[in-house]
Amino acid sequence: MSSQIINVLKKKVAKKTWDNWFSTFELKSVEDDRVVFSVANLFIKDWLQTKYGGVINRSIHEATGKELPFEIVFKDGELSKEETAVHQQAGSLLKRKPLMISNLNPEYTFENFVVGEENRALYEVARDVARNPGKYNPFFVYGGVGLGKTHLLQAIAQETMTNFPDKKVLYITSEQFMNDMIQSIKENNIQKFRDHYRKRSDVLLIDDIQFLIGKKGVQTEFFHSFNELHDAGKQLIICSDRNPEELDNFHSRLISRFQMGMLMTIQQPEAETRFHIAKKLAQRESVSLPDDVAMILASNIDGNLRRLRGAIIKLIVHSSVYNARIDISLASRILQSFASSPGIPSSQKPIDQIYDAIERIMKISREDIKGNSRNKEIVLARQLVMYILKQHFGKQVVEIARETGKQHPTVIHSIKKIDKSVMMGKGSTKILYDDLIGLLSSRSAAV
Ligand SMILES: Nc1ncnc2c1ncn2[C@@H]1O[C@H](COP(=O)(O)OP(=O)(O)OP(=O)(O)O)[C@@H](O)[C@H]1O
């Protein structure tokens, strides 16, 4: 029966697809309640689950006559050093994706951050912060969605760790701070939480502070952590999608703390900078983007750089799957698919906007998402709905539970799960999320 599943699956996908994506895919076991496959890479695992979950399910059904769910695990737990080296040297694009070891994305470095005139001053100060912790305290960076704030924060974190191996550098989102706080209260151990943030970090970086809008209790806790660290000369680095003054419903004393150090904004990159960013984004995927292709992408996609990245990833995946050259004609087709996907009307309720975006990008209907199917793609879509409601539209867990008709623990679990993938910049879930946010951010009020 084991080989039958693979045989059926092999017949259902094109040879090229099989060679590109299933070369390390093997059947590990068929159990009473599930089928387990293994692959040799984190990114492929994620990609197969998302893109080929449906066909894998159908193949299992056809071969076994049962509706068994499946799971994909790493082969032998993880890649051996030799395998990693081989995969880094050669093979398909996907095999070369690095495995993440910390909550910092190894690609978010200063070397990978392209500096145009518009952000030169910001870049210089950021490097200075990593060389001289405590000099500009706090360092507060704000600016629009997808302009590189997280990248810059993580670059400061990584460079500080290199410059000062003895310093304890802690990077978190303000949502994680809140979750840790709630967890510690549940476990009746708030002191441990306080010690963790106040005593065990020399450099604390907090991403997306705007998430704490309206959460007065967490703000108070953060205020005390801020003061204790600041008084002890520890470096604080904070970023937000808006100026501190625009943090509505924030304690005024916290806002004035944010304003007392170095406050800088991250600017939209000009077309020339976008050209260099496009080249760099491709280089991060070990692909060299021809100048004319980088040019056409940079001049057609502005604003949120995740859209630019999304287009480049699509280009690379397309060229890998269809064995096509990355040239102007392919880039134009990709751009057309971006342009022909009209915006989502912003007059709709957030949840309807998200359903629409998912239907367009993942081809999964709202009925499926609202239902109870455990199909992996549908489960992922459901989790993305909850995560986007929270992150992008600032909804509370109670509201999300009400709007999606799911229980609180399911909502919390889903948000955590997607947050982890997004934070780690992990594979296809992150790409999907970026695509969805790109589409939602470009919504047209006209429709
Ligand atoms: N100057 C740059 N050079 C190279 N890559 C960049 C630059 N700015 C942004 N990027 C890339 O663009 C993508 C989006 O950046 P990032 O996630 O840091 O944006 P953000 O401002 O934190 O977004 P959000 O407001 O949603 O939190 C990332 O892949 C990042 O590496």
Automatic annotation (TrEMBL):
GO terms for molecular function: ATP binding; DNA replication origin binding; lipid binding. The lineage of its organism: Bacteria, Thermotogati, Thermotogota, Thermotogae, Kosmotogales. Its main location: cytoplasm. Residues 350-418 form the Chromosomal replication initiator DnaA C-terminal domain. It holds the Pfam family Bac_DnaA_C. Residues 103-319 are annotated as: Domain III, AAA+ region. ATP binds at residues 146, 148-150. SMART domains: AAA, Bac_DnaA_C. CDD domains: AAA (cd00009), Bac_DnaA_C (cd06571). GO terms for cellular component: cytoplasm; plasma membrane. Residues 1-84 are annotated as: Domain I, interacts with DnaA modulators. PANTHER family: CHROMOSOMAL REPLICATION INITIATOR PROTEIN DNAA (PTHR30050). Residues 135-327 form the AAA+ ATPase domain. Domain I is involved in oligomerization and binding regulators, domain II is flexibile and of varying length in different bacteria, domain III forms the AAA+ region, while domain IV binds dsDNA. GO terms for biological process: DNA replication initiation; regulation of DNA replication. It is found in: Cytoplasm. HAMAP family: DnaA_bact (MF_00377). SUPFAM superfamilies: P-loop containing nucleoside triphosphate hydrolases, TrpR-like. Oligomerizes as a right-handed, spiral filament on DNA at oriC. This is Chromosomal replication initiator protein DnaA. Belongs to the DnaA family. Plays an essential role in the initiation and regulation of chromosomal replication. ATP-DnaA binds to the origin of replication (oriC) to initiate formation of the DNA replication initiation complex once per cell cycle. Binds the DnaA box (a 9 base pair repeat at the origin) and separates the double-stranded (ds)DNA. Forms a right-handed helical filament on oriC DNA; dsDNA binds to the exterior of the filament while single-stranded (ss)DNA is stabiized in the filament's interior. Keywords: ATP-binding, Cytoplasm, DNA replication, DNA-binding, Lipid-binding, Nucleotide-binding. Residues 320-447 are annotated as: Domain IV, binds dsDNA.
